Amino acid sequence: MLLGIVACEKGRTVASEIEGEWKLENYYGKDAGSAAVSAEVYISFADGQFELFQKLGGGHFERYSGTYSYDGETVTGIYSDGQDWSSGYLVSFSESGKMTLSQYVNDEEYACVYVRTSIPESVRNDASDFGKVKSSGVVETVHWL
């Protein structure tokens, strides 16, 4: 499903830009840890599969998984239960290596900025597995996927 288009660097594919592990740094212009609803979110993209870990406010992490497709401009996905993400996201990368996922609702941009980092084992171990079930509105409301 992923395109094997060569990007600017020799041997680098479009898919390799997005692949890896990421942590949410800010959403909608607010620091993820100090926004009105604090959020700790990690996402992994690899070989057409995604894994999402999110903790909103207190409590524990929830884990979601499924497949994604990235064409060099937009990423879309399907949860393991067959439900589509709330929308596709425009993807951009900064010179400092940050990734921004943006969507537009009524001509208003909602952007989430991620930094490349490893997902801690403690997050993986803490997560309740919702891998086959799409979040009941939480993900759509917050627009992480």
Please describe what this structure looks like.
This protein has an 8-stranded antiparallel beta barrel with strand order 1-3-4-5-6-7-8-9. By secondary structure, the protein is mostly beta strands. It starts with 13 loop residues before the first helix and ends with a helix. A hairpin with a 5-residue loop joins strand 7 and strand 8 (99-105). It is built from 3 helices and 10 strands, in the order H-E-E-E-E-E-E-E-E-E-H-E-H. Mean pLDDT is 80; it is low at 1-12 and 135-143. 11% of the residues lie in helices and 44% in strands.
| Count of β-strands | 10
* Model regions low in confidence, pLDDT < 50 over at least 5 residues: 1-12, 135-143
Mean pLDDT reading: 80
Write down the Rg. Answer: 15 Å
Strand content: 35-45%
Shape: globular
Strand order of the largest sheet: 1-3-4-5-6-7-8-9
Percent of residues in helices: 10-25%
Helix and strand succession?
A: HEEEEEEEEEHEH
- Major β-sheet, in short? 8 strands, antiparallel, barrel
Structural class: mainly beta
Number of helices: 3
Distance between the termini: 19 Å
